[in-house]
Amino acid sequence: MNIAKKMDTMCLDTGSYMMNFAGCAQCQACEPIKVVNVQRTEDEDNDEELVTFQHVCHECEHVIANHEYTFRVVDEYQVYQMYCALCGHGEDERSIMPCDPRGPKE
């Protein structure tokens, strides 16, 4: 079951997309949530970065969602991906050239 909302090209490597947060499922608190257990891994040989963290309730410490963000370079493009039950699922691809050889995105 895919519960993550499709976020088109939005890919967050930090923070939280609070528009999707109605409250903690465990204690119903609507306070701002915390970001904890941030891990950043860079593989310079493969031009890849992976960021993972958890969204946690400020009141009861319930883990609301696990967040994963990936950045990598593939051929002449920067590829961004995000998957998180709270923030949603997004991906984007941008040319590393000043002008995208494929033309403007529609």
UniProtKB/TrEMBL annotation:
Domain of life: Eukaryota
Record keyword Transmembrane present: no
GO molecular function: metal ion binding
This protein's UniProt keywords: Activator, Developmental protein, Metal-binding, Transcription, Transcription regulation, Zinc
InterPro entries: Churchill_sf (IPR038543), Transcrpt_activator_Churchill (IPR009508)
Pfam families: Churchill
Gene3D superfamilies: Transcription activator, Churchill (2.60.40.4240)
Family: Belongs to the Churchill family.
PANTHER family on file: PROTEIN CHURCHILL
Name of the protein in its database record: Protein Churchill
Upper lineage: Eukaryota, Metazoa, Spiralia, Lophotrochozoa, Mollusca
